[in-house]
Amino acid sequence: MGKLILVTGGTGFIGSHTVVELQQAGFDVVIVDNLSNSKKEVVDNIEKITGVRPKFECFDLANRELTRDFFSRNKNIDAIIHFAAFKAVGESVQKPLEYYRNNLTALMNLLECMKDFNVNNFVFSSSCTVYGQPEKLPVTESTPRRPAESPYGNTKAIAEDIIRDFAFVNPQAKCIALRYFNPIGAHPSSLIGESPVGVPNNLVPYITQTAAGIRKELSVFGNDYNTPDGTPIRDYINVVDLSKAHVVAIDRLINDKNKSNYEYFNIGTGNGYSVMELVNAFMKATGVNLPYKIVGRRAGDIEKIWADTSYANNELGWKAEKSIEETLLSAWNWEKKCRGIK
Ligand code: UFG
């Protein structure tokens, strides 16, 4: 029998891709998700890709009793990957208490259960948002963290601190935080991908919905930044590449390859693309014309960030491999599949 991994938020965007990679690497998976921002059919589609149906339980990890009950019934969990969280930056500004309560309570319930039920390996989905706008680029893991721009971002920074402090007094617990840059794209099978509810906030879903004719045009938020073409720069990483980093992190923990019991890594490509470069790469990769207009800046956006990935590359033996064109094409294929476009 393979090792059993609990994937919280396993029907979500990054979670579902990670479940696929874990299963394909020989791990058994149990998903816990309350389906607040995802659909149960994702489990069917994971099974279609891998030939294996992950176990699935639907409940809210912010509920302490239900979480303890889950661990008391599942005593054979070897590691946890914790994705389940609210993630809309703008919404978090409007509903700070909901964000702090949901994201931090679920985390603390899980950590408490690790201690009480002897689960020693934990991988957390953090974000490059903890760096804010860094003074020096690219950012390394020792780049100082900056105050978060939103309650959502702050939940990631606080969560890292909670995990660090938990690991300090629980030497048997081994924890890794992965600081994601901008995850985009979809599985090459087009069976799983990103499914934003309502109007997308993020660039690539907005681009693919515009290309599909659901949105009239893309609004490019500002072209007066201090970048070569004036539009902001991000490090866009393919979601399958990103998911593979979790498999490597789990292997590192389970096989005691970690150097300390709280580690954190930048998970990006090391390449920065501006919004306009991404728009042009999308048109080139797909052959679809994308209507866009330049509008004013979006509040809270930083100017530029991309990762120095050498620590993750060297320590984890992991590297992002897929090109931006291949990644954007996978996002477009997924959008077409969802919309029934040939
Ligand atoms: N953008 C547009 N038009 C749009 C949407 C986005 O021009 O319709 C621009 C943004 O202004 C930004 C870039 O595209 O310059 C990327 O924006 P996203 O919303 O796709 O991504 P962000 O970098 O703002 O946010 C992402 C994650 C957050 C995380 C943050 C950390 O979505 O969860 O990175 O930096 F907190």
Radius of gyration: 19 Å
Strand order of the largest sheet: 3-2-1-4-5-6-11
Tell me the fraction of residues in β-strands, as a range.
15-25%
Q: Structural class per helix/strand content?
A: alpha/beta
Question: What kind of sheet is the major sheet?
Answer: 7 strands, parallel
Into which percent range does the helicity of residues fall? 40-55%
What gap, in angstroms, lies between the N and C termini?
Answer: 41 Å
Number-wise, the strands total: 13
Taking pLDDT < 50 over at least 5 consecutive residues as the criterion, the unreliable ranges are none
Order of helices and strands: EHEHEHEHHEHEEHEEEHEEHEHH
Ligands, deduplicated: uridine-5'-diphosphate-4-deoxy-4-fluoro-alpha-D-galactose
How many helical elements?
11
Average pLDDT number: 97
Shape from CA axes?
globular
Give the key terms.
16% strand; two-stranded parallel ribbon; alpha/beta; single chain; seven-stranded parallel sheet; 40% helix; 11 helices; binds uridine-5'-diphosphate-4-deoxy-4-fluoro-alpha-D-galactose; globular; 342 residues
What does this structure look like?
There is one protein chain. The protein has 11 helices and 13 strands. The protein is an alpha/beta fold and 342 residues long. The longest helix has 21 residues, at 96-116. The chain starts with a strand and ends with a helix. The model has no long low-confidence stretch (mean pLDDT 97). The structure holds uridine-5'-diphosphate-4-deoxy-4-fluoro-alpha-D-galactose (UFG). Residues 87, 89, 127-129, 153, 182, 201-203, 206, 218-221, 232, 234, 275, 298, 301 line the site of uridine-5'-diphosphate-4-deoxy-4-fluoro-alpha-D-galactose. Uridine-5'-diphosphate-4-deoxy-4-fluoro-alpha-D-galactose is lined by residues 87, 89, 127-129, 153, 182, 201-203, 206, 218-221, 232, 234, 275, 298, 301.
